Amino acid sequence: MNIVIPTLILTKLSGEEYLGPTWGLIVALAFPIGYGVRDFAVNKKLNIFSALGVVSVLLTGGLSLLKLPPEYFAIKEAAIPGLLGIITLISIKTRYPLVKVFIYNDKVLKIDKVNAALDHFNTQKQFERTLNNASLLIAGSFFLSSFLNYVLAKLILVSPGGTPEFNVELGKMTFWSYFVIALPMMIIMMGTLFYVFRSIRQLTQLTLEEVINDGNAE
Description:
Layout: H1 4-12, H2 20-43, H3 48-65, H4 70-91, H5 99-102, H6 111-121, H7 124-156, H8 164-204, H9 208-211
């Protein structure tokens, strides 16, 4: 919905003999927009990351329909993950750091059990430092994504917006972004996850099996 179908439409169906550049772009972007709207309808709450994804897609469509130079797309591609990185850093100083959205939440871990063990061993402050460090790692992954997005856009997007050539280049960028951007971010996120798990084990004496939320109440 977000990568394969839009890439195929942009690269294969944006020629004048098929959908054309404008409708090719509109149809391709309809899939990730539809996915974001469906996520909101199913979960009945706003997911900030899905919302930003929809905004990013709408900006891509708007910039293309306005036939702006490729430089604007590169800036846009860098701005979204850069904004997420800044929000993650700011959230460290609030009651709701974003690391608790990504990792330390009751969908992933048995939070009450972990907190009880932290209280028992008086290691709450050490664990807060762990969460702060994890937030920095997550923010760093967003800033890395921002840089890579900008470089990828500058290398691939060279044609004016609103042309079949631009749509093909946009499709290629969508495809390569998975390998150049998504995989490195996934590796960093997994490393952060294991870092938090290791800290929990050291500070609570609980094993991973004991704290992972597998749906079984204790």
